[in-house]
Design brief:
Layout (H helix, E strand, L loop, with lengths): L2 H23 L9 H7 L1 H11 L8 E2 L1 H5 L10 E2 L6 H6 L4 H13 L3 H14 L3 E2 L15 E6 L3 E6 L21 E9 L6 E9 L12 E10 L6 E7 L31 E4 L26 H11 L6 E10 L4 E3 L5 E3 L3 H9 L1
Parallel strand pairs: 1-2, 3-4
Antiparallel strand pairs: 4-5, 6-7, 6-11, 7-10, 8-9, 8-11, 12-13
Cofactor: Zn(2+)
InterPro entries: Peptidase_M18 (IPR001948), Peptidase_M18_dom2 (IPR023358)
Family: Belongs to the peptidase M18 family.
């Protein structure tokens, strides 16, 4: 995609935002639009950018002196003084696409799965003063004029909304929607597969058309959510995990060796991700590991080394893992490219741009 594409999405989001301004800004939105109104409409973007700066090094966050003087004391330690030309906040005020490029690329890289994306927005909404409404709770008496709220379902969907200062039951609402799921390959409920030609294989299933030719020969990692039990209390909780290096690859045969892969492969037997080496199926020394859990347990149905690796990442034991919802993702970080760095090279752009711009 190009920065111009990102700019169009953000412009469309800003246009939709104008429908929501009466509910968000109250009386301020009743007067004709002025330059001040346009700057006010960008306040949510400024707050989002400030929240993003809080997780970065100061060197990545240059701001000019006038903008620095407008910051709250809690925001000032996260920035460094710079010239107006490099000021990130001035770029937001001017509506420059470049102001959004790095935050968007970081968002793509740091939130590869739907569960990470929902967790990301939950944090941003909390920073912006939104309050959680549990999906199973009774909301009667909890919604107030001017209130800002969010709720989530299954950790894979999120709804945020504001109540206008003058809202009355029966009035209309303005809504922006986007999706955060992406084409991928998810680990099967039983992801253990027999070794093939000395390679440890991983059982996966395509989601929304994944596992096609664009997935071949890529550096694939694994991420998602894991259900674990606390050995001391017996309580269960959901934890997020993403491995920071490539774990799997779907290798292809070079076309000059023969038929190759195109149009000939069986996705169940010949387009399977490999995650390690084990020569036991070739008559060599048996280097395979025993199941990571007792018979009948979830861990016993998954590759033992993978279970132990996920357990180490979560700083728990393999026996504490009760279930997981994991998927493959391209580990290549999002970045700009082209002669003038006018392109954004990344996976999952279509899906994540919808939610990030909204």
């Amino acid at each position: 995609m190009t920065k111009q594409t990102l700019d169009r999405h953000l412009h469309a989001s800003s246009s939709s935002m104008s429908l929501r301004l009466p509910a968000i800004l109250g009386p301020m939105a009743s007067s004709p639009a002025t330059d001040t109104d346009q700057q006010t409409a960008r306040l949510p973007t400024r707050e989002y950018l400030l929240a993003d700066m809080a997780g970065r090094s100061r060197q990545e966050n240059p701001v000019c002196t006038p903008c620095f003087l407008t910051l709250r004391s809690v925001d000032q330690p996260h920035v460094r003084l710079g010239s107006p030309a490099e000021c990130r906040l001035c770029a937001v005020s001017a509506g420059k696409p470049e102001a959004y490029t790095k935050p968007f690329c970081d968002f793509l890289t740091e939130n590869p799965t739907i569960f990470h994306t929902v967790a990301h927005f939950k944090t941003k909404l909390a920073d912006a003063g939104f309050h959680e409404l549990p999906a199973r709770a009774n909301w009667a008496g909890k919604l107030e004029p001017g209130g800002k709220y969010w709720t989530t379902r299954n950790g894979s969907a999120l709804i945020a909304f504001t109540v206008g200062q003058k809202y009355e039951p029966g009035n209309g609402v303005a809504m922006i929607a986007g999706h955060i799921d992406a084409l991928t390959a998810r680990l099967k409920p039983v992801s253990t597969k027999r070794n093939a030609a000395g390679y440890v294989q991983l059982g996966v299933a395509p989601y929304a058309g994944g596992l096609n030719a664009t997935w071949w020969d890529r550096d694939l990692s694994i991420g998602g959510r894991v259900v674990v039990r606390d050995p001391d209390t017996g309580k269960t909780s959901t934890r997020l995990v993403k491995l920071g290096w490539p774990i799997a690859r779907i290798p292809t045969l070079a076309p000059h060796f023969g038929v190759g892969m195109m149009g000939q492969n069986n996705p169940e037997t010949q387009a399977v991700p490999i995650i390690g080496l084990d020569n036991s199926d070739l008559g060599g020394a048996d280097t395979s590991e025993a199941p990571a859990g007792p018979p009948g347990s979830f861990a016993a149905t998954q590759p033992p080394k993978l279970v132990k690796l996920i357990a180490r990442e979560l700083r728990t034991s393999a026996s504490a893992i009760l279930n997981w919802d994991l998927e493959l993702y391209d580990s290549q970080p999002a970045q700009t490219g082209g002669l003038d760095r006018e392109f954004i090279f990344a996976g999952r752009v279509d899906d994540k741009l919808c939610s990030w711009a909204a």
